[in-house]
């Protein structure tokens, strides 16, 4: 048998790539993003699971809204709580559903063998990641759209202003997008879909519950005993004659410097939404949940007062509501930053050619 | 093109190869999946990539498709580096050995999605999708959800998907698995047609008999190394043929008179009626047959014992992993 070895020309230099649109595959393109988003949305819309989920969501939000509205009607109370409660309920439900919308987008596709065939095309990693994020976000917005009738109805019952209503809806939409982006990031990081789902739920729980617990647990750490200004009846006056009078003096007091930990509350989606929906200038003690949360957060943010009020002789002045410095821009910015990190991680991990592969996975 | 060009003073220089890989290495942890691959695939040829399980065929194709970075070595596919160049991506079609289909997308939507991913305008993409569906005979299933297709139909859809961007270089990883005999024949003629039109095809498969009938060249991999590159259509290859007759003794008498060396056929069920003979080419076979029949030997058949690829494969010291 005669075999012919194909000459390999060992000394021959490899010809350079012809100059061309070689950089275009690295950038983001609207056509690429749209291709991926349409692909993802088509798959979602056609599954019956999706329609069932929307129907269940509609029924749930409707039921809760009607119960809340009915409760206020029956008790004859002021329905200022209705919008706040319904919005909080929609947010809570949204935070449960949104992680499922994007947290398996990348590792799920990789396991199903449908990721690599897109990666070899002219689509850039950014096209794929942003397309998937937009599709997940659009799905989350569909849930929000389904709840809009009830949100509008409860807003008409009372509890917010027109500007507050629109701001709340926009911020809620953005927060759901942030959760999708975080989920997308985790789906690019972990090989298993169960892992990324759990991590996304942990992230959401960290933002909503664990941050709250941390805030409480860190309170002793930021509590110190200091010399502070006190307005009240001094101990000398107490020991002396019977005419008590309030005066300003300095004394040792335990002071909790919550101005160092207030951001733990500010990143909480519930706090952010309360701040956007709250009506300005209301007494937090007899208005809705938004005003209560807002004034509590504001107090925490400003930390201990310059002068501690301890005068029990005259009635305390109503707590001042600080509307001038809203908290939500800080919280929203922090959340958007987290979402951006998630998206950046996804783009990074979608880059081919792979140098390292996550353990135990194959490309194809 | 596969037609050899006359090498004259005014002839253009040889076209650059469709695929050129030099000293490729790629490890996964301690497993050296590709450990020294040198590969040249002629433009417009169909080249077989053959090797035992775990010899690194899929890994090599992933590197060529620009999905895996080699640890060491250089690659040119369609004249560009597949890892960094959009030009290479737009010129390469890749069909993985295992791939999924998107839930609830129809066959035609799968193809239009891929066309969009290659930045084809929508109208052009749709036209190309239908053209390819007709090529792989899936046009009457165009509206069926892709994941309800049978395995062979999915495989054909995968082939159409790899062709959507009219690639210059086609990388196929076991494309024929699950195909029925007719589809195999159609795939063969499809690939030959593509090659005749200038497409470079690199195809991995374990079914050597099938490759035998369509490939020009073959590259053998063993333990991540290229052990031999052959140009099968070029040159003379002495092959072993099986000669069957009704009258064994008559054949033996004629053979010793005509000075033809016969080897005993140990695999044959009918004992003395079947012998093996080494022949250089088809013309030698025809001459032998004519002589034997002319001498009155009742010949039943004369056929190659095994395909050229199979023979080459077995003669190589390849090891399974
Ligand atoms: N992602 C990976 N991680 C770890 N090892 C891998 C990975 N991909 C491939 N390998 C190893 O590299 C070797 C080559 O694998 P490859 O898939 O390229 O073989 P192959 O030639 O395609 O085999 P087959 O004929 O069975 O398809 C095998 O030993 C395999 O276990
Ligand atoms: Mg393989």
UniProtKB/TrEMBL annotation, chain A:
<feature type="transmembrane region" description="Helical">
    <location>
        <begin position="81"/>
        <end position="102"/>
    </location>
</feature>
<feature type="transmembrane region" description="Helical">
    <location>
        <begin position="133"/>
        <end position="156"/>
    </location>
</feature>
<feature type="transmembrane region" description="Helical">
    <location>
        <begin position="52"/>
        <end position="75"/>
    </location>
</feature>
<feature type="transmembrane region" description="Helical">
    <location>
        <begin position="162"/>
        <end position="186"/>
    </location>
</feature>
<feature type="transmembrane region" description="Helical">
    <location>
        <begin position="198"/>
        <end position="222"/>
    </location>
</feature>
<protein>
    <submittedName>
        <fullName>ABC transporter permease</fullName>
    </submittedName>
</protein>
<keyword id="KW-0812">Transmembrane</keyword>
<keyword id="KW-0472">Membrane</keyword>
<feature type="transmembrane region" description="Helical">
    <location>
        <begin position="327"/>
        <end position="347"/>
    </location>
</feature>
<feature type="region of interest" description="Disordered">
    <location>
        <begin position="1"/>
        <end position="24"/>
    </location>
</feature>
<keyword id="KW-1133">Transmembrane helix</keyword>
UniProtKB/TrEMBL annotation, chain B:
<protein>
    <submittedName>
        <fullName>ABC transporter ATP-binding protein</fullName>
    </submittedName>
</protein>
<comment type="similarity">
    <text>Belongs to the ABC transporter superfamily.</text>
</comment>
<dbReference type="InterPro" id="IPR003593">
    <property type="entry name" value="AAA+_ATPase"/>
</dbReference>
<feature type="domain" description="ABC transporter">
    <location>
        <begin position="19"/>
        <end position="248"/>
    </location>
</feature>
<keyword id="KW-0547">Nucleotide-binding</keyword>
<keyword id="KW-0813">Transport</keyword>
<dbReference type="Pfam" id="PF00005">
    <property type="entry name" value="ABC_tran"/>
</dbReference>
<dbReference type="InterPro" id="IPR003439">
    <property type="entry name" value="ABC_transporter-like_ATP-bd"/>
</dbReference>
<dbReference type="GO" id="GO:0005524">
    <property type="term" value="F:ATP binding"/>
</dbReference>
<keyword id="KW-0067">ATP-binding</keyword>
<dbReference type="InterPro" id="IPR027417">
    <property type="entry name" value="P-loop_NTPase"/>
</dbReference>
